[in-house]
Write a structure and sequence with these properties.
Elements: H1 2-34, H2 96-106, E1 108-109, E2 114-115, E3 121-122, E4 128-133, E5 142-146, E6 153-158, E7 162-168, H3 170-174, H4 181-185, H5 190-204, H6 217-224, E8 230-236, H7 246-260, E9 270-275, H8 281-286, E10 292-297, E11 308-313, E12 316-322
Parallel strand pairs: 1-5, 8-9
Antiparallel strand pairs: 2-3, 4-7, 5-10, 6-7, 6-8, 10-11, 11-12
Helix pairs in contact: 5-7
Keywords: Signal
Protein name: Enterotoxin
Length: about 325
């Protein structure tokens, strides 16, 4: 009889304990899942009138809105909220000098590497010109450059179809060194030397294959003539000699170019830019002084305008055309 009574008491005790534990679990679960229990003055311990923590200091993430009075942004005009990837890295006014130095170090020089008798490539001191026809499907950026300009003349003609760049040495064509082969070959006649080395080079080109020196502007003209063509004559601010004929020679170059590309005779097609020559090699090696840089990218942007062509003389931007 005592055993039966004891068993009944144990069952009652366990049942009561389970009820207490179950109630405790509900309360604790509510605390951990739903938030803190709110204390009230009347001592209630239930989740009544529960308060939520609210975050402050952050606005909504909203799509940009454009009202009728706001002009639609041109794709090149602003970078605000603009996520289209631009492939050609462009300079800012703050880093333009470093940019030109870096980019000209990667670009192709406006020269033709000549092959000597030992089959070694050497860049000889000759007037040079190169023509590049743009291809809309090309994957690589096209870069051309000239460095250490300290009296030389550059002629760059650019359209939306191609570019022709000429580099003409001062000591060959404008103020020929007396120990240069041309001086004796053309009987010390400076005008004749200029005609043969520059004008005829523009007209007919010079050399071919491994010995190529100049691309003919006359032959290149039909390949890149268009309504957007422009020409840039980059030259020193002064002659080497007081009686030099640089101005006359530059005008002859312009006239020859117009002969093959008549659209260059229209207003606004020519830009002349002069640079101050320096003999400071530290400046020429470490800064943008004496540098000319041309760059074209057929896939600058994944959406129109896709193409971009640019030209700098030292830190001055001369050409910027996107189409």
């Amino acid at each position: 009889m005592k055993i039966i009574v004891l068993t009944i008491l144990v069952v009652i005790y366990c049942s009561t304990a389970n009820v207490i534990l179950h109630y405790s679990a509900i309360i604790n679960g509510a605390r951990s899942k739903d938030g803190p229990v709110v204390g009230h003055d009347n001592g209630e311990r239930f989740l009544l009138n529960r308060q939520l923590d609210r975050r402050t200091g952050r606005s909504k993430c909203s799509a940009p809105k454009r009202g009728p009075e706001i002009a639609k942004r041109d794709s090149l005009a602003s970078s605000h909220n603009y996520t289209v990837y631009r492939r050609m890295i462009l300079p800012t006014p703050q880093n333009i000098d470093d940019y030109i130095v870096k980019e000209t170090g990667k670009a192709q020089p406006v020269v033709w590497p000549q092959t000597d008798r030992n089959e070694e490539k050497t860049e000889y001191d000759i007037d040079t010109s190169v023509f590049d026809e743009f291809k809309f499907y090309q994957n690589d950026e096209l870069s051309e450059m000239a460095v250490e300009l300290k009296g030389c003349t550059m002629l760059v003609i650019v359209s939306r179809r191609g570019a022709w760049l000429g580099h003409f040495w001062e000591n060959i064509s404008f103020a020929t060194d007396h120990d240069h082969q041309f001086w004796e070959k053309y009987n010390e006649d400076q005008d004749k030397i200029f005609e043969e080395s520059v004008i005829k080079g523009m007209r007919n080109g010079k050399g071919s294959g491994k010995n190529k020196e100049q691309d003919s502007l006359r032959l290149a003209a039909p390949k890149f003539d268009d309504d957007h063509i422009k020409a840039y004559l980059v030259h020193p601010t002064s002659n080497y000699e007081e009686n030099g004929d640089y101005r006359e020679n530059w005008d002859r170059m312009k006239a020859e170019a117009v002969t093959h590309l008549p659209k260059l005779n229209r207003p606004g097609r020519w830009v002349e830019h002069s640079y101050e020559p320096t003999e400071d090699m530290e400046l020429l090696e470490d800064t943008a002084r004496g540098r000319l840089f041309f760059k074209y990218d057929a896939k600058h942007s994944p959406q129109a305008p896709r193409n971009l062509a640019m030209l700098w003389s030292e830190t001055t931007e001369l050409h910027n055309d996107a189409w």
